[in-house]
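Hi support team,

I've been running sequence recovery on a batch of backbones for a student project. Most finish fine, but this one hangs at about 90% for roughly twenty minutes before it completes. I'm not sure whether the input is malformed or the queue is just slow. I've pasted the structure tokens below so you can try to reproduce it. Let me know if you need the job ID as well.

Thanks,
M.K.
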């Protein structure tokens, strides 16, 4: 059996965590023994990813990413200490391959694996450059990825970026995300009724929703502005934002300053996202940058009409006017116009819903995605054994 170390720094809600859990739940456990090594913040409670691992009764190891909170004391040696702890785990021949997810996992995992002759597979989900520290880490990540054996990118845009940063094109592979979407009309109807009741949404009201981290690159201010203009035009809209993040307070203030004071709802981080999605009439993805967003795939798998910005890999998933509507990033007016088209045309809405489910079933299923990762594992490990 091939032993894999799955290294990541989980946040409360994100694509990397969902992708990793999907892999753990579906990989062939008779061939691969995957051990998550979770880079944690010791002063925080167990996060969503760790709680899900424990629900699955899946073993894992932890490595503290720092000894102190940044606001209390700087931990200048944290990268070296994490690398040393990972090396002590890996140097006894425990792993055949190290699979990294995210910049911090890459920065410590790839050099450690290189020093021990262990092959690496890095999964690149995207780069967020919202502050100087992240920009520095992202540049280090791009440099370190040159040392890796293979990098899987979730979008062609990311693949091109890596090649521009002189990561060998022979080591860069494209693999779009996938979801395990099973649509049951009866279960959908029950979930819709329960979720709308929980949030106080009547059947006459139009619920616009989005799901993910509340951060600048998600462009959610444009959704709030679009909802405000639709309400002013006489449509009984409400907005549901599922998730949490650094932009929450700003978005709450934006909603309060307009006419959405009682009509923009913030659920915070939720573990039951799939149970909440059926409440939404139109799923809006207003991102300024994206890979292949899991939330978009999940909404489409449930047949919820989508309006999405044409960024990253989104246009390879959403075909304009066939299984959704594409708009330009940063354009609240275009979002509002697209929503109106959907809610005012029942035939168009039903056609979008059907085409969405077909798209997910035919092109974004779990099994081909897992098989592709297993293929990369096998090729890298066999190549190491031959050499």
């Amino acid at each position: 059996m091939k032993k894999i170390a799955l290294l990541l720094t989980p946040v409360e809600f994100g694509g990397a965590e969902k992708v990793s859990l999907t892999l753990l739940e579906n990989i062939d456990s008779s061939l691969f023994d995957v051990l998550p090594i979770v880079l944690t913040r010791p002063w925080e409670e167990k996060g969503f990813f760790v709680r899900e691992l424990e629900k699955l009764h899946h073993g894992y190891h932890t490595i503290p990413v720092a000894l102190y909170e940044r606001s209390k004391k700087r931990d200048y040696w944290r990268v070296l200490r994490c690398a040393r702890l990972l090396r002590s785990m890996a140097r006894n021949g425990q792993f055949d391959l190290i699979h990294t997810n995210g910049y911090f996992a890459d920065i410590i995992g790839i050099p450690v694996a290189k020093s021990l002759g262990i092959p690496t597979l890095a999964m690149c989900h995207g780069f967020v450059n919202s502050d100087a520290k992240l920009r520095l880490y992202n540049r280090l990540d791009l440099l370190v990825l040159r040392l890796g054996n293979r990098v899987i990118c979730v979008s062609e845009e990311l693949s091109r970026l890596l090649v521009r940063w002189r990561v060998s094109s022979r080591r860069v592979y494209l693999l779009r995300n996938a979801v395990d979407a099973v649509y049951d009309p009866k279960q959908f109807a029950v979930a819709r009724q329960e979720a709308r009741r929980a949030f106080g949404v009547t059947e006459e009201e139009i619920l616009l929703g989005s799901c993910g981290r509340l951060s600048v690159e998600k462009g959610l201010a444009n959704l709030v502005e679009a909802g405000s203009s639709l309400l002013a035009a006489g449509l009984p809209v409400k907005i549901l934002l599922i998730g949490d993040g650094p932009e929450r307070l700003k978005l709450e203030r934006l909603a309060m300053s307009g006419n959405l004071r009682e009509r923009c709802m913030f659920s915070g981080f939720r573990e039951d996202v799939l149970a909440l999605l059926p409440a939404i009439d139109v799923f809006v993805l207003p991102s300024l940058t994206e890979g292949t967003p899991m939330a978009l795939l999940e909404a489409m798998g449930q047949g919820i009409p989508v309006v999405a910005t044409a960024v990253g890999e989104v246009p390879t998933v959403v075909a304009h006017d066939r299984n959704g509507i594409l708009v330009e990033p940063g354009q609240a007016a275009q979002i509002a116009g697209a929503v109106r088209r959907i809610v005012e045309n029942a035939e168009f809405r039903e056609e979008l819903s059907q085409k969405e489910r077909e798209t997910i079933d035919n092109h974004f299923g779990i099994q081909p995605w897992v098989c592709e990762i297993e293929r990369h594992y096998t090729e890298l490990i066999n190549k190491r054994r031959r050499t």
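--
Follow-up from support: It reproduced on our side and the slowdown came from queue contention, not your input. The chain has two domains: 2-178+366-386, 185-363. No action needed from you.
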